[in-house]
Amino acid sequence: MLRRLQRYDIGAQLETPDQRLKRLTDFVVSTPHEILTYLVIAVDALAVVKQEFNIQNWVSDPCFLVPWEGVQCTNSSSAVRVSDINLSGKQLTTSIPPSLAQLTELIHLSLDNNHLTGALPNLSNLSKLETLHLQNNNLSGNVPEWLFELQNLRELFIENNNFSGVIPRQLLNRPTLQIRYSGNHYLCMNKGDCDLSSHSNRRKTKIILGSLLACGIALAFLLGIVVCRNNRRRNRSSVKILDHSTVLVPDSSKSHAFTPDEMLTATKNFSHKIGQGGFGSVFWGELPGGNQIAVKVLSLFSKQGVAQFLNEIELLSRVHHKNLVSLLGYCNESRDLMLVYQFMSGGSLNDHLYGPDAFKYPNLDWRTRLKIALHAAQGLEYLHVGCTPKIIHRDVKSANILLDSNLNGKLADFGLSKVAMDDDASQVFTAVRGTPGYLDPKYFTSHMLTEKSDVYSFGVVLLEIICGRKPIDITLSEEKLILIRW
């Protein structure tokens, strides 16, 4: 075991052979056997990955002094664990090494945007894995059923590959799992929807000829439909909506599903725009019963739009509190992705403090400011304490505190929120998301997300309420630029 550890021991460069041997011996004696076993297996597994992927800049130790690019380790008082491998866009051209299954502490694995081929190896040993990103490769074969054994898996992105067969139903029915699989032309939701059995060349020829003939007949019919549809929509709004026809809304969602035509009618052809966010444009609308609504429409340029869409539906369909904005429903038909909320006529706290239309609103007296802060705090407390498992909002800011006509505050925008699946978990390792000026510095540097990160952001909001200025104001001098330093 000493020899296997010595291969990756960078400390040897500064020691005599005797000093090095003594230090390694002390390390082996003082370290629990199971941790030593993990370290040896992990180092060997990474060595295989390095060789298979032909990675030249992985030298020395994967976690210390000169960490390997794309490899992140979690350091604790008892051991070092490889928790994150991100080799996205590294021009990898081979198959996925099965040795990755030996990295049993892995939480995030990103191999997307490469040229990987072959089937997905069995990674069922990765019981702690939360995200598996394999999109934009050339992977093939079936979507394996062992993925269901990964109980902590939250994101499975396999779009734009060559996967085939039927997606395991138990994966589709898991409410906490977000699946993205578009761009796999031979992948089906139901067994009856695809036939992947082998055919003779003669049968293939007949199918091709028959298809060509059918296409010729159908072309004229489709052309007529297109003309009629264009005439029908000629007077509709020019709102452009991204094509996400394969987005799956979890079966557990209890939110109402609206149709595109219902949304067109309610918003009067999207004629009254009331806001713009990272998800897309927000429009005012009114349902037949008279209830006013706010409709978010996914933007063509929203990189996280689909993920936020599914996240908000999943969370807000089961979370209800007087200080959280209510999700009334969604639209997920054909090419339309929309979220439908209760309309908050008072705008946002940001609007009242220093938004471009702040002059339209009455000044907030101190009693009202205190009330709004208290309402936002109660909504945040419910997410952290009242929900099981707890929810970390991850984007608390004045623009996400909406006000009704009586200036009652409600927390909004759960697109970036994270669920701590273990109720006793104090932290979640995740990519940094949020808004500059509100980000918890500890979360920003460590990627360890806790409810304290929300509390920090809320503290910035309190400073906004008291001082009446932005968290970052580039019009001010350097010493006044950042609110928390000022």
From TrEMBL:
Residues 268-486 form the Protein kinase domain. It holds the Pfam family PK_Tyr_Ser-Thr. Its EC number is 2.7.11.1. The keyword ATP-binding applies. GO terms for molecular function: ATP binding; protein serine/threonine kinase activity. PANTHER family: OS07G0107800 PROTEIN-RELATED (PTHR45631). This is non-specific serine/threonine protein kinase. It comes from Taxus chinensis (Chinese yew).
